[in-house]
Amino acid sequence: MGRIALLSTTFLLLTLVWAGGAGCAESDSVIAVAPLDLMLTTSDLDSFSGLVISPEAMLVILPEPETGFLFARGTITPLGAEPRVKLWIVPGHVSEDAAAEAGIVILHTTQYSTVVEADWTSAHRLRLLGYAVVKARFRPIADLKQPHFGSEAVEEFLRQRPLTGARKRFIRSLSNSVDTLLIKNTIFDLSYDLDLVEYRTRYACRTDLNDDIAPYIIDRLTDYVTPHGGSVLIHDCLHDDSPCGAVPFRNIAGVLPGKRTSAHYLICAHYDATASREPVWNWMTDPAPGADDNASGTVAVLECARLLAGLDLDFGLTFVAFSGEELGLLGSDCYVDALSEEDSILGVINLDMVGYAGPGNRTEIIYDWRSQWLSDLIDEMADTLGIDTTFTFNLSGIPSSDHASFWTAGIPGVMLADRTGKFGIPEYPSYHMVSDTLGNLSMSQITDNV
Predict the structure, then answer these.
(1) Which candidate, 209, 212, 174, places its Cα nearest to that of 330?
(2) Which CB contacts under 8 angstroms, 24+ apart, belong to 222-228?
(3) Strands, DSSP E only, in 163-307?
(4) What does DSSP say about strands 231-237 and 192-193: parallel, antiparallel, or unpaired?
(5) Where are the beta strands (DSSP E) in 40-146?
(6) What are residue 198's DSSP bridge partners?
(7) Confidence category of residue 80, pLDDT binned at 50, 70, 90
(8) Residue 160 burial by CB count (10 A; 0-12/13-18/19+): exposed, middle or buried?
(9) Nearest to 445, CA basis, from 425, 427, 419, 424
(10) In 3-state terms, what secondary structure has residue 282?
């Protein structure tokens, strides 16, 4: 590895910051696919930028002239793309017909995801064909490998205050206070307009989202956190190349300080919706009720805020409703970009589609290599509560929801979600359809997730 160590020094200046948070380099650098274990265990490669795309593979930006021996050895495969092009990650496979219709170029496919090259318009066109499309955001490999203080803080806390029988009984008592009727009524409010007697749309480019839904969420979070010393923050963000033009993505955060530390957990969900898998769907006129995706997650966050706001907690809690998730994690991406070094996030719990019981009544926990400790804690809580749910851990690292925006910043996060099938696509029959309505959901499934 001596030659690679020399490369790290010689070509460090070639590894710059790519626009939008990705890594950029001079024209003699290339984007390649490398084994994940190689990139995470070899310190000589830490100065380069990478992005995990499967349990086995990472995209990496390398200087081309001096890495020919790696390519020739078959260890690393170049994709024939320069770092300045816009890359996107799509869970699963993209058909050739869809690629041609959207005008994108398929560069690489793994068992879990597809890497495509496209401008913003083409990527959005692919999204309207029913694919989940997320911008590739590279980070220095050294940052990706650096331990996060969250797991260490929790381990120390549990040593000081172990999960005793009394605490388990308190947790069970608290869980019994989940208000299933309130959950049902809130999902109804978010997905159906009783005044107009029609299903709503919560598509992020529609002004309805900011005018009608955002105030509803703001009022609820205000009622829950402000009596206990908390506050509600509103963050509007605009992306220069957003398909929504001047319509901002409105993130809403209810913040509760902890009594021992400013470090906090973030419990989140996106509140926008889409029906892009409909054969004919016009986002400007047609509904997108999104009862499961993701009114179910939004109401779960609100219910957590209601239950936890009055507790005297050592760590802080931040409850966030993100917009723009269905357009490529744009709201959470903007939120993460605005974080400062003082924002000490222990971990992120993201709830995205938690209302479809489906076969086996299974809830999945999606995590990356930095956040298994957090998924283990959630699994322990499920056992404590006696919830008859099987947790399936998924180490794919596929950036399929807002937790992935925090992964790119090195912050551990997990997603609780409905049962998924191949490539992590939800098995829910009404996924991204106009038929995603309240009548298809299981209130007990949402209650278990809360």
Answers:
(1) 209
(2) 222/254, 224/254, 224/302, 224/305, 224/306, 224/309, 225/254, 225/255, 225/256, 225/305, 225/309, 225/319, 227/309, 228/256, 228/309, 228/310
(3) 192-193, 198-199, 231-237, 249-256, 264-270
(4) unpaired
(5) 49-52, 57-63, 77-81, 87-91, 105-109, 113-117, 134-135, 139-140
(6) 193
(7) confident
(8) exposed
(9) 419
(10) coil
pTM of the model: 0.84
Across 168-175, average pLDDT: 90
E-strand stretches of 282-354: 316-322, 345-351
C-beta atoms surrounding 378 within 10 Å: 16
pLDDT classification of 74: cutoffs 50, 70, 90? low
Question: Is pLDDT of 20 > 60?
Answer: no
Strands in 277-370 per DSSP E? 316-322, 345-351, 363-367
Q: Which residues, 6+ apart, have CB-to-CB distance to 72 below 8 Å?
A: none
Instruction: Determine contact, residues 338/311, Cβ cutoff 8 Å.
Output: no
Q: Which element (helix H / strand E) includes 2?
A: helix 2-10
Between 178-187, 327-336, 357-366, the lowest mean confidence (pLDDT) is in 357-366
Q: Picking from 21-30, 100-109, 246-255, which range would have the lowest pLDDT averaged per residue?
A: 21-30
- Alpha-carbon gap, residue 30 to 343, rounded angstroms: 34
Residue 101 has pLDDT above 50, yes or no: yes
